[in-house]
Amino acid sequence: MNPRLGALQPYPFEKLRALHAGVVLPADRRPINLSIGEPKHPTPAFIEDAVRDNLKGLSGYPLTRGTDALRSAIANWLMRRYDLPRIDPATQVLPVLGSREALFAFAQTVLDPDANARVLCPNPFYQIYEGSALLAGARPTFINADASRDFAADWDSVSDEVWAETQLIYVCSPGNPAGNVMTLDEWRMLFDRADRHGFVIAADECYSEIYFDEAHPPLGALEAAHRLGRTDFHNLICFSSLSKRSNVPGMRSGFVAGDANLIKQFLLYRTYHGSAMSDVVAAASVAAWNDEAHVIDNRRMYAEKFDAVLPILQPALDVTRPQAAFYLWPRTPGSDTDFARALLEQEAVTVLPGSFLARDASADGRGGNPGTGRIRIALVAPLDECVEAAHRIARFAKAYAAR
């Protein structure tokens, strides 16, 4: 067996199942699960129609580089969304089977484990970042989120020695779980470090289309690079997906885009990896990337939930509206794990303890676990369920704090 498998930690939801062991739910409460970021809004009918209308695509092997139509649709969407003058669909775009598998596989492509490789990750983080680093023979290093800076990663804590050993950085903007959006100054700093030390930046943007101000969408990685004169996107790859944008997590459809040299090497890796998107999914994906009306409606539904839930929760918990994404990241009165277990036991509401999403050390070995004392609430359930859950959480939190 690959000995590196032993370095993998249990996934957050495996920890959650262990935390819930022995819990008996109250008989007078219907269970409401707000722990997992799985979109629950209906899949748009035109995407379902596109699947049905293209079933003949099942009769042939798909190409790893994807269809010309899909790469063009993605390139055009990137240019519209981020006001970019040119994205070459032939060299700067590659369809993938959702951002998750691509985020993992990309590390296997760019890391040299014989060079004492280090991978930097925000903390809290998406556990795929850590797993991809470990299985590629690298050392994951966690950069704590700074609550005083709207949960931006504390890049100033990274020593020159750590920067010099870094081969890959994962960033997530809008962030999971805090919904923070990286600023142009943050990007400028990372690009400067990448030029100085030669590492690659992997920008996870799967929440980029869940935001609350139609006039001010979140800044993207390619957009930031272009504004700063990096028109070739050197050492930068962004990862995106239709799962949350278009409510099609089961389609497993996303893309990577950016540095053409990195795309070329990633395509080589994927040719051996066997990660080609079905032409059926590709055709439905073209339809999704070409339409914005359903995405605007999707944002409206999430905004309604935040508008309804926050006034209920804020008198009971320290919680604020995020810049983007569909999570709340409130403080808990006391232990996040004790709070989450007791909430399920008394109110039949499932949330995710924040400590399960983070690790105990920042880049300098200090800082503790930045998820401790917080919970992640995913507002993915229907509006009425989110409102009902908010009332239960608020009632429970007030009683919990008064113990």
UniProtKB/TrEMBL annotation:
Q: Which UniProt keywords apply?
A: Aminotransferase, Transferase
Needed co-factor(s): pyridoxal 5'-phosphate
Which superkingdom heads the taxonomic lineage of this protein's source? Bacteria
Molecular function GO labels: pyridoxal phosphate binding; succinyldiaminopimelate transaminase activity
Instruction: Tell me where in this chain the Aminotransferase class I/classII large domain is found.
Output: 31-389
Q: Name a biological process GO annotation.
A: lysine biosynthetic process via diaminopimelate
E.C. numbers: 2.6.1.17
Listed Pfam families: Aminotran_1_2
Could you tell me which Gene3D superfamilies the record lists for this protein?
A: Aspartate Aminotransferase, domain 1, Type I PLP-dependent aspartate aminotransferase-like (Major domain)
* Listed NCBIfam families: DapC_gpp (TIGR03538)
Q: What is this protein called?
A: N-succinyldiaminopimelate aminotransferase
Source organism per entry reads: Pigmentiphaga litoralis
